[in-house]
Amino acid sequence: MKSYGAYLKHVLTCAPAPRSERIPVEAAAGRVLLEDIRATIDDPVEARSAMDGYAVHARDLRDAGSDTPVWLAESGRSQAGRTPHLRLAAGTAWRIMTGAPMPAGADAGVPVEHGTRTDGRVRFVAAPKRGAYVRRPRENFRRGTLLIRAGTVIRAQELGLAITAGYKTLRVARPLRVGVVSTGDELVPPGSRLRRGEVFDSNRPTILAMARDAGVQAIDLGRVGDRPEFLDRILKEHRRELDMLVTIGGVSAGDFDVVKVFLRRYRSVDLVKVGMRPAKPQAFGRLGRLWWYGLPGNPVSAMIAFDRFVRPFVMRATGHRLVFRARRTGVCEMSVGKKHALREFIRAHARQAGDRWHVRPVGPGGSSNIRSMVNANALIILPERCRRVAAGEEVAFELLADPPLRTVP
Ligand code: AMP
Ligand code: MG
Fold this sequence. Notes:
With 409 residues, this protein is α/β, with parallel strands linked by helices.
């Protein structure tokens, strides 16, 4: 049996370097950036108005007050994007719109609602500070400033910043192509009439959804029953189009465990017993260029094994800097017994009360019952040597909905 920690490390060190492609920045949302984004321009390149209003010389309005209004002649106006080069004449105000370059010499803005305009003149009743309502040149960033680090997932705002910084295309990771296949003669498609011994193939769509959620291009390869020759066929047909094949089921101690039987032929994929609960039996390795991950068949085990290993593997292989969720601690609301010296992942419900988290295990128990995953929003993580958690003790947990926050250890 391999310890959970050592096995996880092994899996992650196997993750290949991401392959990159250059795509239009507009199409990059959701992708992982593979280059640092540095500003190619100063932003803004010149002083600009932060308001619709008037550009003025602050000293012309030095004496303006509610009892001592000052009148300035309106010498012209400009709008964002359509601005002649000009110099503001002393003793005048220039009507200006948000984002328009300040006329040379003007050193303050006055919002439109603070000036009253009549007959080509504007009445001001307050003295603006120098620099008020002016966006200074380079106040957002200077050319060359590091703005976004490689390894960041591009969200709407990263996309906006990259464009603002002058980018037209971005170097991003190519998504991994991951095929998912379920095994077991008992499996039947959703909604069929179940005959004796049959179960719905729920894992494959579940794992496909998890894979898409991890940012891969997930490819549904159907069911192969318990016949090794069907796995052969899948390999022959799809090997070239895949980076990774994820199989579900057939890796434990049953007589017909198809993945196990199939993989005995290859020494490059390990059938492992991982020191964890659930999801002890798994398979991991490669056939030539194709990575192989064998998940256990019980629905909870399949999900947890995917979550703990496949997800960080594919994320790392697509250039993510952060692949692990925040490890939190919370008060365990009930006592939990633990029989085995294994790393245990306990489906749990976590809630915040005041500034503390409270967590409680949720059922129903058993790794074949996926209802517990629906009731859970977290996994309590108990270390190998832990034997019991008393109610009120602190435990480590992860929120399943948390975005990845931690780097590879
Ligand atoms: P196995 O690992 O193949 O021995 O499967 C363990 C248990 O998980 C068995 O009860 C299977 O029927 C069940 N199982 C395996 N694959 C799936 C699947 N794709 N969907 C739902 N249940 C499955
Ligand atoms: Mg099976």
